[in-house]
Every structure is written in C-alpha cells, then in structure tokens.
Amino acid sequence: DDDDDDGVDNDDDSDDDDADSEFGVTDRFAAASRRNGDAESGRLEPVLFLQRFFARVAAGEHVVDARFAYIMATEWNRLCFVCFMHRSFAHVKRSRCVGLADAVQLVQLLCHDFPQELPKLCWDVLPPASEGDGGRRQFLAFVQGLALWVVYSDFFMDLAARFPDHESADEPWLDVQVPRSDAVQAIRALAAVPLASGMVIRPPRFILTRVTESLPASGVTVRSLLSGFMADEARHDLFEFVLRMRDKSSPF
Questions:
Q1: DSSP state of 174
Q2: How far apart are CA 237 and CA 211, in angstroms?
Q3: Is the full-model pTM beyond 0.85?
Q4: Alpha carbon of 215 to those of 95, 107, 179, 210, 242: distances in Å?
Q5: Dihedral-angle region of residue 186 (phi above 0 means left; psi in -120 to 50 means alpha; beta otherwise)
Q6: How many CB atoms lie within 10 A of CB 199?
Q7: What is the pLDDT of residues 204-252, one digit of tens each?
Q8: Does residue 202 contact residue 232 with C-beta atoms inside 8 Å?
Q9: Does residue 225 contact residue 185 with C-beta atoms inside 8 Å?
Q10: Within 10 A of 72 (CB to CB), how many other CB atoms are there?
C-alpha cells in the first residue's frame, strides 16, 4: 500500500512540475530568491516576489523587455508601453526625420518581437514630413502615431472592417473609395457601442467628432479616414489623452 501511495504522490508532483515549467513559475521564484541574496539556501520567497512584481505592474515597469503579445494583452499593458515609448524617445528632436526601416528598428529596441505590420500600417496613414523628404516621417510624430495604434489598433481595424471589401490587385484595401455617408455611419456605429459590452477601448467622442467633420465630401478611402486620426492636431490631442488616461488608470 505504501508503494502505491508513493507512486500516486510522485505522479502528482510530476504534473505540478510540468505546470510550473510551462508558466515559468519556479524559475521566476528562483530568480527572485537569487536577487534577495538567498541563492545558497535555494529557498523561494513567493510573497516577496509577488510584492515586487505587483509593485512593478502598478508602476508600469513590467512591460520593459516584454513580448509583444504580453504588451497587447491588456489595456493597462498597452498604456504602460505607450508611456515607456514616450519616455524612451522624449529626447529626440522634433524635426528629426527617419525612414520606415530605421523607425521599426528603434521600436524593436523596446520590444524585440514587435511586428513590422503595425508600424507599416501607421506609416502608410501618417502624413509625410514634407514633399521633398523622400517619404520620410518625423520620428516623434511616428512614435505618437504608433502609440495610438498600440492602444486603439482593435478599434481602427474594426472601423476599417466595416467598409465593403473591394480590394483588388490594382487597388490596395487602404485606397478603396467609399461614400462619405458610409464612413460617417461606421464611425457613429462604433461610437454608439457601450464600452460595458466588452468592446475594446475607443478614442474619445471629441476626437471621433473632429475626424468625422474633417472627412472630404467625396472620395473617402480607408487611408484618408485613418489619416484623420493621424493629422497633427488630432494625433497630438489623442496622444495627450492617452497619457492622461494612463495616469488616471490603475490595474488594482
């Protein structure tokens, strides 16, 4: 009987070890113990580890060196990463212009697996620095625009998805023309969805109203619609709104 009991206990321990290994719990606790000067005894101090971990989450430091999927997992993580971007590049001169490849590499210094598709989308709808600048963008404007895509990417893609799919080999989906009334209706429809319904965060109504009013009378494209959020005044105001939202929010 004792042998049978030992066998059951050993199997349970093996399952627990597998679970710990999958989520890295044991490794994280061990690392915390080493930082606490307890490496020789090998004792784990989960309470101290959790205390420090949640302190980092509250301070927004948990997104440093984090993977992209982790950053995008929650609204708080997205807001914290935006503030991390803002602090990291605040010293760059406003007049500094860069190409897409350089901009992506700089962003990937903060998140090594940041996908290139998101910066490319932001780049495509962000106005160029000037006509004679070879299609380059002001870097800080790009950082602001990319920050908005990090926070509101689900909203932007939901908005674009409300337009008919007329994409062809000769006409990319960003350049598909739609009636102005359809664009206005799409914005108003998303603005009317209660946030309590589980919808992702959306830009504030004053920004949605401003973008709606700025739409051209005809020839509205997905590109021009999304560019409305990236225009200098709208982008700056929305970025400042996001920073204030981070300061007023709390994960606890």
A1: G
A2: 12
A3: no
A4: 28, 31, 10, 9, 23
A5: alpha
A6: 13
A7: 888 999 999 988 888 788 888 888 999 888 999 999 999 888 888 776 6
A8: no
A9: no
A10: 19
